[in-house]
């Protein structure tokens, strides 16, 4: 199997198409202790960050679409020009002049049960629950390689391998400025991954309290702290209390204080997950709210992430890959596979928005993007090769000051000669444009950082940028 085919189907054949799988494992991550920008990283967090704690801390669900998603589901503005110059034609129902055109009023890729979720995008924009930024476009370094772009976007910094991940940076800032509202060791699951090992939590030498290091949870709500899930000591008839007593008795004395505290914390987390975060309890809560997620791999994973955020205000940064949707590296057969994948994504996100609203959770923000965009020319394998421009979809968080929702931001134009593969969209001369690193800066801003440029040399998104909604 060709490498691109292997990467494309990782999500289908074995779970999440995560950074670790795409890049060959975490051994590729530099162990560098270098700084966030220049100088010492810990010093920057402690002494250079101008921090003002917000009245309400946000909760971020970070959905990363590994492989590089096409922008076209969220931006068919230029499709007439694209189709006129593409090496291979798009379907006739994607012609704006066609009587059966599936293009929505704001140029999303509609088509109902055969479309790419455009009608849901229209609905979420109209209700003020989502904004889409159509011009997340690299100017600083126009990389179109998976490795470089994944590292950079998940750290929010161009010097990616020497930089902590976005989640780790948030943990460090909040810890350094005593912003949790309680001691870090009293927090319950503050940083969580539903994609296993993730670069968004890369430490890169940044010191954070042990209690704020991320924990990987299972989308099926299996409790990682339950000893019966440990094949070495678990099994039928296990005496949990006896094991706990033995562990405590062997950790007596002041020199083992941290050990005893760790056992206590383990029990607290186990009890929380077992009582409040199990499949039966979550399903009962959702039934009471009238919420039903799609029974798909991605739907179940998003259900787990949103349920945790709703149930546990301590969970401040939750990472999700696009596992269950497959990879987004659509070099071939894109017209067959991409719409279904996008429709699954948008259907799940719509339910998540309804879930957050029904639960009264107006501080939860869901950000959805990938490492880069794609060309708009249909190549001879009926696919799109790597490009630059991509969308950011940001949902929820109506209670966070400064949130600009219900907007379509950015206008694009097609670039490239007719009949060649390298055709892509780019922001028009007068359009708003933002680096992907601005997404990290915006997250830092929501958590209270006033001068985000000291963390990644990038300003947050301009949420007052012109609204292009028709």
Automatic annotation (TrEMBL):
Which Pfam families has this protein been placed in? DUF1501
What InterPro entries does this protein's entry cite?
DUF1501, TAT_signal_bac_arc
Record NCBIfam families:
TAT_signal_seq
The molecule here is called Tat (Twin-arginine translocation) pathway signal sequence domain protein
Protein species of origin = hydrothermal vent metagenome
């Amino acid at each position: 199997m060709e490498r691109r085919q292997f990467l494309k189907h990782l999500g289908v054949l074995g779970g999440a198409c995560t950074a670790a799988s795409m890049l060959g494992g975490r051994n590729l991550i530099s162990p560098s202790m270098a700084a966030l920008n220049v100088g010492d990283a810990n010093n920057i967090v402690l002494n250079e960050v101008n921090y003002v704690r917000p009245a309400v801390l946000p909760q971020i669900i970070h959905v990363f679409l590994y492989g590089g998603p096409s922008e076209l589901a969220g931006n068919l503005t230029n499709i007439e020009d694209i189709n006129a110059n593409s090496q291979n034609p798009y379907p006739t129902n994607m012609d704006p002049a066609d009587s059966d055109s599936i293009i929505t009023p704001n140029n999303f890729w509609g088509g109902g049960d055969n479309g790419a979720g455009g009608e849901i995008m229209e609905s979420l924009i109209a209700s003020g629950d989502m904004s889409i930024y159509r011009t997340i476009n690299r100017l600083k370094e126009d990389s179109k390689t998976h490795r470089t772009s994944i590292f950079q976007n998940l750290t929010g910094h161009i010097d990616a391998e020497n930089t902590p991940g976005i989640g780790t940076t948030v943990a460090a800032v909040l810890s350094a400025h005593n912003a949790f509202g309680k001691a870090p060791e009293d927090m319950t699951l503050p940083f969580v991954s539903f994609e296993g090992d993730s670069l968004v939590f890369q430490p890169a030498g940044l010191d954070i309290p042990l209690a704020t290091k991320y924990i990987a949870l299972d989308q099926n709500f299996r409790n990682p702290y339950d000893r019966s899930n440990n094949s070495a000591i678990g099994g039928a008839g296990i005496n949990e209390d006896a094991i706990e007593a033995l562990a405590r008795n062997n950790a007596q004395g002041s020199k083992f204080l941290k050990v005893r505290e760790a056992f206590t914390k383990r029990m607290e987390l186990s009890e929380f997950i077992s009582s409040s975060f199990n499949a039966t309890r979550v399903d009962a809560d959702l039934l009471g709210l009238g919420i039903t997620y799609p029974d798909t791999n991605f739907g179940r994973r998003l259900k787990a992430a949103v349920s945790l955020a709703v149930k546990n205000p301590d969970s401040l940064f939750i990472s999700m890959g696009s596992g269950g949707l497959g990879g987004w590296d659509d070099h071939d057969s894109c017209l067959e596979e991409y719409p279904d994948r996008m429709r699954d994504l948008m259907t799940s996100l719509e339910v998540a928005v309804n879930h957050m609203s029904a639960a009264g959770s107006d501080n939860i923000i869901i950000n959805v993007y990938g490492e880069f965009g794609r060309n708009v020319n249909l190549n001879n394998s009926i696919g799109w090769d790597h490009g630059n421009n991509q969308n950011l979809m940001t949902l929820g968080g109506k209670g966070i000051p400064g949130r600009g929702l219900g907007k379509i931001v950015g206008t694009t134009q097609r670039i490239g000669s007719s009949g060649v593969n390298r055709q892509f969209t780019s922001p028009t001369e007068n359009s708003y444009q933002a680096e992907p690193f601005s997404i990290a800066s915006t997250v830092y801003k929501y958590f209270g950082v006033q001068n985000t440029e000291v963390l990644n040399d990038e300003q947050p998104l301009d949420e007052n940028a012109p609204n292009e909604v028709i």
